[in-house]
Design goal:
Layout lengths: L3 H29 L4 H24 L12 E3 L4 H10 L2 H23 L7 H23 L11 H20 L2 H5 L1 H15 L6 H5 L18 H28 L6 H20 L5 E3 L1 H10 L4 H16 L1 H6 L5 H23 L7 H19 L9 H7 L2 H37 L1
Antiparallel strand pairs: 1-2
Helix pairs in contact: 1-2, 1-3, 1-13, 2-11, 2-13, 3-4, 4-10, 4-11, 5-10, 5-15, 5-16, 5-18, 6-8, 6-15, 10-11, 10-12, 12-15, 16-18
């Protein structure tokens, strides 16, 4: 049983691991829509607050909702483009109306999605988890270089700071045990930030400008409005998120030695649907399971749900205390990147571990793993190849997790299921002919 102090410390480590991903979405959307600094500050506060509520709903769970695994929920990057497009052509109220309806769709569609689990055998699960990790590596490397679009992108000091952070994490994992090893990422982030401060890379301007207290209020940007096109767009976004989350659930199941059943997936997706509805009500965003925290669970070895409950509570507090939330934004991008290399690499290793349980000497399994990983990584690395396609198709195919997962499922159907059915039919036919003669 972990003490309260350890739960808070380990929970903070998970918050810091996902914080950049949680904050960058409101910053991108707010900047693209020319929102005022006060409105962007509200978006960040609402996002953190709702992340916390969504995480608690998922981890604690009820009879009908919540995966009850150590998972953290955050806003999905898939929704960034569509939200900007909807709000630009109409308004934010229409975007949030679409988010609310799409969340209801996820709640209702969860049982149907659960029935598809028979198409996710071990070879598909391992391929999907590997794809999730590989598709995140470019995110880590962009941060290592200083953050995509930054003026000092790729400067040696950024690379050295990221390398130093990674080395600290590796040394702690090699030479320590117990609680210290479990918080190796947190120690690496703190050490990297201190070094970054000495290098002049840490700035506290956003902290001084942030207010001390803020209350998240429903429908901050107005009463929701509804558009069929906007609703269909957001439903498509959340179907993509459902596919991603299913892969994350499988990864968590393997990491925590928990058998993830059809009903578990259904309850997890229902929980995400409820979280998405809350995101629409509080003018935040659609939510999904964050892959980086799966890597952290694997790296730290701490699989307790209490830690995620602690993380959810910290996120709620950060949503209510903008100045405290702003303090976590001073961590330099290269420091985050160094930590991400270890965490995302653990997700890849987890996928490879799952695939090690598959007989890859069978040509069918080898083809499923090889082609799905190649397609998924290719889509994530070169998304521009789909630029000439219609918007809806482009949105689907530019997501490497979706294309890789679909490839794995389809190949499993064609090479395994249909082949077995064909062989069974041929065997039955031979038996019938033999009996007749």
């Amino acid at each position: 049983m972990l003490s309260k102090q350890k739960v808070v410390t380990l929970g903070l480590q998970h918050v810091l691991a996902m914080y950049a991903g949680a904050v960058v979405v409101p910053l991108i959307i707010g900047g693209a829509l020319n929102l005022t600094p006060a409105q962007i500050a509200y978006l960040i506060a609402a996002d953190l607050f709702t992340c916390g509520i969504a995480t608690l709903l998922q981890v604690i769970g009820t009879r009908y909702t919540g995966i009850r695994l150590p998972v953290v929920l955050g806003c999905t990057f898939t929704a960034v483009g569509p939200i900007i497009a909807i709000a630009s052509t109409s308004n934010l109220a229409t975007a949030y109306g679409a988010i609310i309806v799409s969340g209801i769709f996820v709640v209702l569609a969860a049982p149907l999605f659960g029935k598809l689990l028979k198409f996710f055998p071990t070879v598909v699960q391992g391929s999907v988890v590997t794809i999730i990790g590989l598709s995140l590596i470019p995110v880590a490397m962009n941060n290592v270089a200083g953050g995509q679009g930054s003026a000092d992108f790729g400067q040696p000091r950024n690379l050295l700071l990221a390398l130093g952070t990674l080395i600290v994490i590796l040394l702690i994992n090699r030479f320590t045990t117990g609680f210290i090893r479990a918080i190796s990422v947190l120690i690496g982030l703190v050490a990297g930030t201190v070094v970054g401060y000495m290098m002049g890379m840490v700035h506290f301007g956003t902290v001084s400008e942030a207010s001390w207290f803020s209350v998240v209020e429903p429908f901050y940007f107005g009463v929701p409005e509804f558009s069929i096109v906007a609703i269909i767009t957001m439903i498509l976004v959340n179907i993509i998120s459902m596919a991603e989350s299913t892969g994350v659930y499988f990864a968590l199941g393997k990491t925590t030695n928990t058998e993830v059943s059809k009903q578990d997936v259904v309850k997890g997706l229902r929980g995400e649907g409820v979280a998405i509805v809350l995101g629409g009500i509080f003018n935040a965003f659609p939510y999904t399971a964050f892959s980086q925290n799966v890597g952290l669970v694997q790296l730290s070895g701490i699989k307790s749900r209490d830690v995620m409950i602690g993380a959810g509570g910290i996120l709620i507090v950060l949503g209510l205390l903008p100045k405290l939330a702003a303090l976590t934004t001073v961590i330099p991008n290269p420091v985050l990147g160094g930590a991400m290399v270890a965490m995302f690499g653990m997700v890849v290793a987890s996928g490879i571990n799952i695939l090690s349980q598959v007989d890859l000497r069978q040509n069918e399994n080898l083809l499923i793993a090889a082609c799905s990983i190649a397609v998924g990584l290719g889509s994530a690395a070169v998304p521009s190849m789909f630029d000439q396609l219609p918007t809806m198709m482009k949105m689907l195919l530019q997501n490497g997790i979706v294309t890789g997962s679909l490839t794995a499922v389809v190949l499993n159907l064609v090479l395994v299921h249909w082949n077995k059915n064909l062989q069974q039919a041929m065997t039955e036919n031979k038996t019938t002919v033999s009996e007749a003669s």
